[in-house]
Amino acid sequence: MAEIELHGTWPSPYSYRVLWALKLKGIPYEYVEEDLFNKSPLLLQYNPVYKKIPVLVHGGKPICESVIILQYLDETWPQNPLLPSDPYERAVARFWIKFIEDKGPSVWVVHRTSGEEQEKAVKDTLEMLKTIEEQALGGKKYFGGDKIGMVDIAYGVIAHWLEVVEEVVGIKMLEPYKFPRLHAWTKNFKEAPIIVDNLPDRDEMLVYFKQAREKLLASA
Amino acid sequence: MANAEVVLLDFWPSPFGMRVRIALAEKGIKYEYKEEDLQNKSALLLQMNPVHKKIPVLIHNGKPVAESLIAVQYIDEAWKDKAPLLPSDPYLRAQAKFWADFVDKKIYALGRKIWATKGEEQEAAKKEFIESLKLMEGKLGEKPYFGGESFGYVDVVLVPFYSWFYAYEVFGNFSIEAECPKLIQWAKRCSEKESVLKSLPDHKKVHGFVLELKKRLGIE
Question: I need a surface site. Which of A66, B32, B48, B69 has the fewest CB within 10 A?
């Protein structure tokens, strides 16, 4: 089997999506930390269109966009499948993955703004959380059912990064009493095998995201 | 897979709806087309897509699939024995999904800015729009279709915008063919296919629709 590289950055939830999938499937890989403030020629060569991480390189061939990488991994290494096999259930899973792709960035807007702009982003985030709570989870332990699946992996940002942003900006959004199902899911997800051993250090993240916010506000 | 009942909730000028029409036609699937009035959305639409309340929605045996790319992938998987749209190789599939995602991120949003804005904003949108099309033209290379020898997923995803090119050109005062002749050749080649012919509206009708839309939105 050809060599696999994951190009990512340690605080990125998108990087972690790929990392979790690789580990859940037991796929050996080499991790390459990229510096986004000083992008390597290799990264620019692998992802000329967006110049972003994560990039998965398999046998020298790059695959970009975390959700596309997840599906590539699932199709190439079918053990421990991350998507259901039924076409309709797959469509439902893809719908919820797209939902967090489309709406999730409001969390980053909360992180990098203040005043009215931040207030609107908080409102958008709360609406997103409400939809997830009411329509996406049902009564299941995970989005994937009894086992973690691709939707859970995609929603990892809500499980571990949202609370860091909340603490940095001083605004609580995912309140347990308002979003009991989602709150229970975040605990189940973070305690799940493999995930539990592969989460970025919370204190280091607090420092990183606090500094990042200060920089972004200063340059705004 | 039995054809049982297939319904498409759609809106005639929508490029996203056109994608699903083309996919259904490629697979020879009989379906009921329901035109939605987006100013007066039907109870069925609100029930079938409560999260976004948007078209297109594909309904198969009473179960809804929303989001055009997800619907096209669902059609490809549920009716997999005819006219496959995505390649079978996982790496090629990942590439196809990457470019489909690129079309969604760039072409629609930039196209909208071309007809909805003026001055510097419009000029910037035109420039980026052409750059994006040129990137895709490069990806097409000498192949007849993005899918290679046969019409495939990326072709289905991009070709609907061809019916909007005339409107973009009139409102943007530029020629897409002058900038991207090979892409226009590709679009004309696709338009010879019955599935595309049946699914794309007349470009003058689209232009008329955009004129009315601009009036309604109060855009000069």
Answer: B32
> What does residue B216 show for φ and ψ, rounded to 5 degrees?
-60, -35
Burial class for A158, CB neighbours closer than 10 Å (0-12, 13-18, 19+):
buried
Give the distance, in angstroms, between the CA of residue B61 and the centroid of all CA atoms in the same chain.
24
Whether residue B59 contacts residue B112, with contact meaning beta carbons closer than 8 Å, is answered with: no
Going by C-beta distance under 8 Å and a sequence separation of 6 or more, which residues neighbour residue B63? A88
Give the residue from B148, B179, B166, B177 showing the smallest Cα distance to B210.
B166
Contact assessment for residue B17 and residue B11, using Cβ atoms and an 8 Å cutoff:
yes
Average pLDDT for runs of 10 along chain B of length 220: 78 98 98 97 98 98 98 98 96 98 95 96 98 97 97 98 98 97 98 98 98 92
Of B23, B112, B153, nearest to A68 (Cα)? Answer: B153
d(CA B149, CA B89): 15
Q: Return per-residue pLDDT of chain A as tens, 220 residues.
A: 459 999 999 999 999 999 999 999 999 999 999 999 999 999 999 999 999 999 999 999 999 999 999 999 999 999 999 999 999 999 999 999 999 999 999 999 999 999 999 999 999 999 999 999 999 998 899 998 999 999 999 999 999 999 999 999 999 999 999 999 999 999 999 999 999 999 999 999 999 999 999 999 998 7
Q: Is A194 left (phi over 0), alpha (psi -120 to 50) or beta?
A: left
CB-based burial label for A95 (10 Å; 0-12, 13-18, 19+): buried
Residue where the block lists tokens 């009921």: B32
In the numeric block, the tokens 């409001």 are attached to A106
Q: What's the pTM value of the predicted model, to 2 decimals?
A: 0.96
Supply the DSSP string of B106-127, one letter for each residue. HHHHHHHHHHH--HHHHHHHHH
Domain regions of chain A by residue span: 4-76, 87-219
The distance of B100 to chain A (nearest Cα, Å) reads 11
Domain A4-76, second-level architecture: 3-Layer(aba) Sandwich (3.40)
DSSP SS3 for A16: helix
From the list B71, B91, B102, which residue is nearest A61 (CB)?
B91
Q: What is A87-219's CATH number?
A: 1.20.1050.10
Neighboring chain B residues of A63 at a CB cutoff of 8 Å: 91, 94, 98
Whether residues A63 and B102 touch (CB distance < 8 A) is answered with: no
Asked whether the beta carbons of residue A71 and residue B91 sit closer than 8 angstroms, the reply is no
